[in-house]
Amino acid sequence: MKVYQKVLMLLAAVSLGLLFLFPMWKIYLKAPQYPEGLELHIWVNKLGGSSEGVLQNFNILNHYIGMAPIHAESFAELKYMPYIVVFFMITGVVVALLGKRKLVLGWTLLLMVGGSVGILDFYLWLVKFGTTLSPEAPIKVPGMTYIPPLLGHKTLLNFEALSLPAWGSLGIALGILLAGLAFFLSRPAVQLPSVARTKTTVS
Amino acid sequence: METLVNRFWKSAPKAALLLSLAAGSALQSCNKTGAGEGGGAAAGLDADAASKVYVAPGKHDELYSFLSGGFNGQVSVYGIPSGRLLKIIPVFSQFPENGYGYNEETKAMLQTSHGFIPWDDLHHPKLSRKDGMTDGRWLFVNGNNTPRVARVDLSTFETVEIMEIPNSAGNHCSPYPTNNNEYVLAGTRFSVPLDMKGGTADVSMEDYKDKFRGSISFIKVDQEKGDMELDFQVLVPGFDYDLANGGKGPSNDWVFFTTYNTEKAGTLKELGASQNDRDYLAAINWKLAAKYAAEGKAKEMPANYYHNKLDHGTHSAKSTIKKKVRYLLPEDCPGMMYLLPAPKSPHGIDVDPTGEFMVVNGKLASTLPVFSFSKMMKAIENKQFDGEKNGIPVLKYEAVLQGEVKEPGLGPLHTEFDGKGNAYSTMFVSSEVVKWSLKDLQVKDRMPVYYSPGHLMIPGGDTREPYGKYLVVMNKITKDRFLPTGPELMHSAQLIDISGDKMKMLLDFPTVAEPHYAQGIKADLIAPKSVKFFKLDENSHPQAAKKESDVSVTRKGNVVTVKMTAIRSHLTPDNIEGIQVGDTVNFHVTNLEQDWDVPHGFAVMGANNAETLIMPGATQSLKWIPKKTGVYPFYCTDFCSALHQEMQGYVRVSPKGSSVPISFSTGKKKPVPPAATASLK
Ligand SMILES: [Cu+2]
């Protein structure tokens, strides 16, 4: 691999650091009585919001419908995900230094799998919270579940819920993109034209 | 006409609103007996008044205005131009709405050397200053009856400090901040026989002339935190000191006080204090006074006054009793104080935005004198004196006079400025606002107002750069302005458009109790800094329970301490037992919410007290002494959520000496029958 390709791979590894600087996902809730809105921020290692009280206010609203309170402690993922990210960053750097194409491919595919598993896990906990409601809930709407949208917009009772990836996710996207680019650019260039020519002559 | 108006209503509501207003005022003159109509149409009503004051639902006003409440001891906050009431801030009054003065945290605010005084006569709001402009940090107000000065924090709109003023009686010409808020000045209205120990002496009224003295207090203000401290007082001759105003620009170092009863009459002042053709405008060089005081010219005397402060962290007030006060005598301090003769019983003293002109509103005079600051300085330099009074030089009237506004109207009380070279004065007797020019002292316009105006306010009208778009005039009598409400009617404020050559009436709005003066300020100097809720982490109240697991009920002798929490939609604990008749039960309720506009209230049946309203993140305490056995409900008083009605609990009160142990709980977890919901269907 050429130096600039190694640098691309290095950048791919470093990009994952965005996960520690920004939330991965944001869920926005808005209703007439909440004109300022509520924002839940999901980080790789914690839960937060646009202001300090957000998580508490989410839970206060959710308690009417019997949704279990959301706490950072309820998610084991938040504990081990940072290690996974660090693992990817370190191996990414190692792969960049070794400059082996196959390793780059392997790393990229593994990251793609990791990202997908993350999204799937996220979706599963949305489903779990939205459907596992306390039978003692003060407000029960027959047939109603409260799964927030994974991506995009949904109306839940009087709340407009909007769910979007945030800057942290860009870290994963960049990681995949840059590593993929490093893999693509480092392909053996000489053989391709001859293959093409053979093809034309055959036809 | 009626049906035509009605048709407009149906087809185009907004146009019809404007039309009917215009038509209404036109019809008034020919149909004064019409049912449901006021007798007084507004003269000079702007044809487009409705749209000029219309602030659509959800939109905010351009300005905040702070109106004093007079005898209700409160400040009311209105939006301008809509006239919407935004808030009532209790200062010198108990306020059942939020428990101010009732709960244990704020009772100390109303302590004085005379004991607990839950009332005062609040006259003048004054906004804090930076560089001669209002900065929206604090509002200072005076208590007239039991001399006090209070500070309201405009990030929370709460009264955070009240200081009693010793050697004062009728703290009327108060509180006037200097241009950088170095000092807030407070002058006494009534002179009294000072006993030089912080109180008044037991003397005969016959001795008024010799023994009565006034005082001007110099309250130092902490530049960062706003905390007040009585630095020193100037003991002045025994006149009545009515109003004050600070200089600006060239007159920055000076502050001016109007006086009446320079006759020193002790009885029937209505006549006795109206004999001299001229009383005085007292001018004090506050910087020089501060310098004299710092240099050791000040003497010290015993005093006894309360200083009450609310702590941000504990949300609780504490009183400190001060035992000393320093004072200066003008006769010992050359160059510090001068008297300017002013026509008959002057009331308001107002300094124009340039700081050059001092307008003295002689309420019994037929002209409105305008003094010149530069002439005053020259007269001092040239010693153009007309004798002296109690060792204070009196300047020659002609030497300091810029000119007189001829026939301004009857009974001028107050003047404010638009920053475009115009002055506006209220005429109490002839019931009008008169606009005149500072350049030629000629009257330019008149606007009749309903009825008998006292103060008027132009937002920033007492600063370097007034916001010359609106004028609010506060009226003392309100017959016919609103639907009748028995013998007592609300006072009124009227909003006048002063952006053009002619004044235009825009709006009437009722005001709470009697507004004496007001201050206005652009909303964006206050709104962005408004506190939305208190951070629970920063709550340092000694009895705070910051989470539900911290709650407790403990007994010590016959005092029971309940540490409680409130959150939508329950109180913890909500079942308390083991209380006995005659116990003193202190409920300390912490609001665990961290969201805007979610206070919880707390009230107990039969408590000889009020509710208390707890802001998010704060702790407030209610004292309750049960007198009979039984079960007493308590509940949240502020509709906080869909389950607000369920936000309640019970206290069991047993006979004195009962063996029921102290216990408390909230909702023991019950097993839910597995098929409960299914079987119900
Ligand atoms: Cu409540």
TrEMBL record, chain A:
Keywords: Membrane, Transmembrane, Transmembrane helix. This is Copper chaperone NosL. The chain crosses the membrane at residues 7-28, 80-98, 105-126, 166-185. It comes from the Bacteria.
UniProtKB/TrEMBL annotation, chain B:
Transmembrane segments: none annotated. It is found in: Cell envelope. Residues 662-681 are annotated as: Disordered. It comes from the Bacteria. The keyword Signal applies. Its EC number is 1.7.2.4. The keyword Zinc-finger does not apply. InterPro entries: Copper_CuA, Cupredoxin, N2O_reductase_N, Nitrous_oxide_Rdtase_Sec-dep, Nos_propeller, NosZ/Cyto_c_oxidase_sub2, WD40/YVTN_repeat-like_dom_sf. GO terms for cellular component: cell envelope. Keywords: Copper, Metal-binding, Oxidoreductase, Signal. GO terms for molecular function: copper ion binding; nitrous-oxide reductase activity. Pfam families: nos_propeller. Residues 1-25 form the signal peptide. NCBIfam families: nitrous_NosZ_Gp. PANTHER family: CYTOCHROME C OXIDASE SUBUNIT II, NITROUS-OXIDE REDUCTASE. This is Sec-dependent nitrous-oxide reductase. It comes from Nibribacter ruber.
